[in-house]
Every structure is written in structure tokens, then in C-alpha cells.
Automatic annotation (TrEMBL):
This is PF06067 domain protein. Pfam families: DUF932. InterPro entries: DUF932.
Amino acid sequence: MGISEEELKRRIPSVYSDAFFGQVSETYLQIKTSDVLSLFLDIGWEVQTATEINVRNKDRKGFQKHMLILEHPSMIFQEEGKLNVVIRNSHDRSNSLEIFYGFLRFACSNQLLVRNLGNNNQKSFRHYKANLDTIKDWVAEILFWIQRLSR
């Protein structure tokens, strides 16, 4: 069983941030990690790992970069192991939303990830209004490819 939403809210509050840090342009759109996460939770994916970086500037607390690693109970492959989806984001304008999937290998204790499903399994999205539909399309594409892999 994965990390519950209540536990996630308590441990990694930046995932559920409804605000963003600092001033932004009119084209900026806050892409909430919780909104992207709900697309996966609704179809049975579970959060297995959740982390956020420490902040030096206390004003950024709750907006900092964070990462979620998701697993689905039925996505286990005999040769490779569990298929994962990773969501990385921040609400402090320091990086784009990143979503990728694959069989992850932890290379060292600082969570360096080694992915092994090719080059087309990762996309980044800047926080712009024009990207909202593109993000939804990418999530749908991920789910399509994962479904094909599971056959």
C-alpha cells in the first residue's frame, strides 16, 4: 500500500500548494502537482515515494521542488520489476513540471534514478497557460503506453 493523501499532505505539503512563490507574468499558470497526481490516483496508481528539497529561504517553504514516484499494483513485470511514473514539480518558478515513466533503478542513496525505457518517456512543461491541454495529452499518452506494455 502506498502513501495516503493525508500522509502526503502532512509530509510533503508543497504537492498540494494552491499558491506560487513570487511575482509571475500574465502567461504563467500554476500547474498543481495535486491535479496531475489525481489523474493517476483515480485509476489505481499509488504514491510509493515522496520527497521535497530543503529550502534556505524560509519564504519558499511549501513551494519548493518535490518529487513523487508512483506505482500501480498490476504493473509488475517479471524481467524488469515495477513500472513507475515520476512527477517532479515546484511552485517557486525554479523548474518545469516533469513527468516520466519507466523501470527505475536507484543508483545511490541520494536517489539518482536510472531509467531504462528509451528516450521518449519523458516530457517537461513550463508553467504556461498554453501547456494545460498538452499536459493532459501527455498523461493520456503515458497511460496508453503503459497499458500496451502490460499486455
